[in-house]
Amino acid sequence: MMERRRVVGITSLGLVVLLTSGIVRADEFGDHITEAITHARAAVEQGERGNLAGLEEHALMALQHARAAAEIRGDFRLDDAIELLYRAAAHASVNQLAIALENVQEALAELRAVY
After folding, report:
1. How far apart are CA 113 and CA 36, in angstroms?
2. pLDDT in tens, 13-28
3. Domain 28-114: what homologous superfamily?
């Protein structure tokens, strides 16, 4: 009887750990998406002001958080946002403001669709 209680206790503990780790990962995912959206918004604002360096910096930060979120949970819209953020940073780095701004605006829409 004592052995059965240990097995049930260990099994219950394992289930709690498994469920808790899933919740923590979901929170992490949401945190990364929120940060990606915040930086994408900042990139749009910088682009609208004509600040290519600011657009690039925030697009890269958004990209970092979007990639981290994708490692936790994949989503085709998240994949699209990652590609668009990469393009936005690349275009900003070669002084192509209009294209960079368009890319980051589209990425922001994709990130919002994920969350």
Report:
1. 12
2. 554 444 444 555 779 9
3. IL-4 antagonist (De novo design) like domain (1.20.120.660)
